[in-house]
Amino acid sequence: MSENGNTKLKDNADIGTVKIADDVVARIAGLAAMEVEGVSAAAGDITAEQISRAGKSALSKGVKVQLNGGSVTADLNLIMGYGYNIPSTCRQVQTRVKAAIGNMTGLVVQDVNVHVAGIKMPV
Fold this sequence. Notes:
The protein has 123 residues and is α+β, with helices and mostly antiparallel strands. The protein is built from three helices and eight strands.
Protein backbone atom coordinates (compact mmCIF):
# COMPACT_ATOMS: atom_id res chain seq x y z
CA MET A 1 0.00 0.00 0.00
CA SER A 2 2.98 2.30 0.43
CA GLU A 3 4.19 3.50 -2.93
CA ASN A 4 6.88 6.12 -3.39
CA GLY A 5 6.70 7.07 0.28
CA ASN A 6 2.94 7.57 0.20
CA THR A 7 0.13 5.54 1.66
CA LYS A 8 -2.81 5.30 -0.69
CA LEU A 9 -6.18 5.19 1.02
CA LYS A 10 -9.30 3.77 -0.57
CA ASP A 11 -10.13 5.22 -3.95
CA ASN A 12 -13.38 7.07 -4.28
CA ALA A 13 -14.09 6.77 -7.99
CA ASP A 14 -16.48 9.71 -7.88
CA ILE A 15 -14.01 12.14 -6.33
CA GLY A 16 -10.43 10.88 -6.60
CA THR A 17 -7.61 9.37 -4.55
CA VAL A 18 -6.23 10.27 -1.13
CA LYS A 19 -2.54 9.63 -0.44
CA ILE A 20 -0.76 10.32 2.84
CA ALA A 21 3.03 10.70 2.87
CA ASP A 22 4.73 8.19 5.14
CA ASP A 23 6.53 11.10 6.80
CA VAL A 24 3.16 12.57 7.79
CA VAL A 25 2.31 9.37 9.67
CA ALA A 26 5.73 9.53 11.38
CA ARG A 27 5.13 13.17 12.37
CA ILE A 28 1.74 12.30 13.84
CA ALA A 29 3.38 9.56 15.90
CA GLY A 30 6.18 11.87 17.05
CA LEU A 31 3.81 14.65 18.07
CA ALA A 32 1.55 12.25 19.96
CA ALA A 33 4.54 10.77 21.82
CA MET A 34 5.90 14.18 22.81
CA GLU A 35 2.53 15.07 24.37
CA VAL A 36 2.92 12.33 26.99
CA GLU A 37 4.24 13.52 30.35
CA GLY A 38 7.57 11.86 31.03
CA VAL A 39 8.75 11.83 27.42
CA SER A 40 11.67 14.21 27.34
CA ALA A 41 12.82 13.92 23.74
CA ALA A 42 12.87 11.82 20.63
CA ALA A 43 16.07 10.02 19.65
CA GLY A 44 18.76 12.42 18.61
CA ASP A 45 17.98 14.36 21.78
CA ILE A 46 15.50 16.70 20.18
CA THR A 47 13.34 18.21 22.89
CA ALA A 48 9.93 19.86 22.71
CA GLU A 49 11.65 23.26 22.90
CA GLN A 50 13.92 22.40 20.00
CA ILE A 51 10.94 21.14 18.00
CA SER A 52 9.22 24.50 18.42
CA ARG A 53 12.35 26.23 17.11
CA ALA A 54 13.18 23.72 14.36
CA GLY A 55 9.63 23.27 13.18
CA LYS A 56 7.25 20.35 13.07
CA SER A 57 9.41 18.50 10.53
CA ALA A 58 11.68 17.56 13.45
CA LEU A 59 8.86 15.48 14.92
CA SER A 60 9.61 12.50 12.71
CA LYS A 61 13.19 12.28 13.97
CA GLY A 62 13.52 9.06 15.94
CA VAL A 63 10.29 7.68 14.49
CA LYS A 64 10.05 5.00 11.83
CA VAL A 65 6.79 3.80 10.35
CA GLN A 66 6.18 0.77 8.18
CA LEU A 67 2.97 0.52 6.23
CA ASN A 68 1.64 -2.85 5.16
CA GLY A 69 -1.65 -3.08 3.32
CA GLY A 70 -3.54 -0.52 5.36
CA SER A 71 -1.91 -1.25 8.70
CA VAL A 72 0.91 0.63 10.37
CA THR A 73 3.76 -0.38 12.64
CA ALA A 74 5.48 2.53 14.38
CA ASP A 75 8.89 2.35 16.04
CA LEU A 76 9.74 5.26 18.33
CA ASN A 77 13.12 5.89 19.93
CA LEU A 78 12.55 8.13 22.94
CA ILE A 79 14.38 9.67 25.85
CA MET A 80 12.43 9.61 29.10
CA GLY A 81 12.61 12.10 31.93
CA TYR A 82 14.28 10.97 35.12
CA GLY A 83 11.86 9.82 37.83
CA TYR A 84 9.02 8.68 35.57
CA ASN A 85 7.80 5.09 35.56
CA ILE A 86 9.12 3.82 32.23
CA PRO A 87 6.63 0.97 31.58
CA SER A 88 3.65 3.17 32.45
CA THR A 89 4.92 6.09 30.36
CA CYS A 90 5.58 3.79 27.40
CA ARG A 91 2.04 2.36 27.62
CA GLN A 92 0.68 5.91 27.53
CA VAL A 93 2.83 6.64 24.47
CA GLN A 94 1.57 3.49 22.74
CA THR A 95 -2.06 4.35 23.48
CA ARG A 96 -1.73 7.97 22.38
CA VAL A 97 0.22 7.19 19.20
CA LYS A 98 -2.23 4.44 18.18
CA ALA A 99 -5.21 6.74 18.72
CA ALA A 100 -3.63 9.70 16.93
CA ILE A 101 -2.64 7.76 13.82
CA GLY A 102 -5.97 5.93 13.69
CA ASN A 103 -8.08 9.05 14.20
CA MET A 104 -6.16 11.25 11.77
CA THR A 105 -5.54 8.77 8.94
CA GLY A 106 -8.06 5.96 9.33
CA LEU A 107 -5.21 3.46 9.14
CA VAL A 108 -5.17 0.43 11.43
CA VAL A 109 -2.24 0.59 13.86
CA GLN A 110 -0.87 -2.90 14.35
CA ASP A 111 2.07 -2.15 16.66
CA VAL A 112 3.61 0.81 18.44
CA ASN A 113 7.07 -0.21 19.59
CA VAL A 114 8.76 2.13 22.05
CA HIS A 115 12.52 1.94 22.50
CA VAL A 116 13.85 3.89 25.47
CA ALA A 117 17.14 5.27 24.20
CA GLY A 118 18.06 7.17 27.35
CA ILE A 119 17.07 9.08 30.46
CA LYS A 120 17.28 12.85 30.74
CA MET A 121 18.78 13.69 34.09
CA PRO A 122 17.54 16.77 35.97
CA VAL A 123 19.79 19.82 35.83
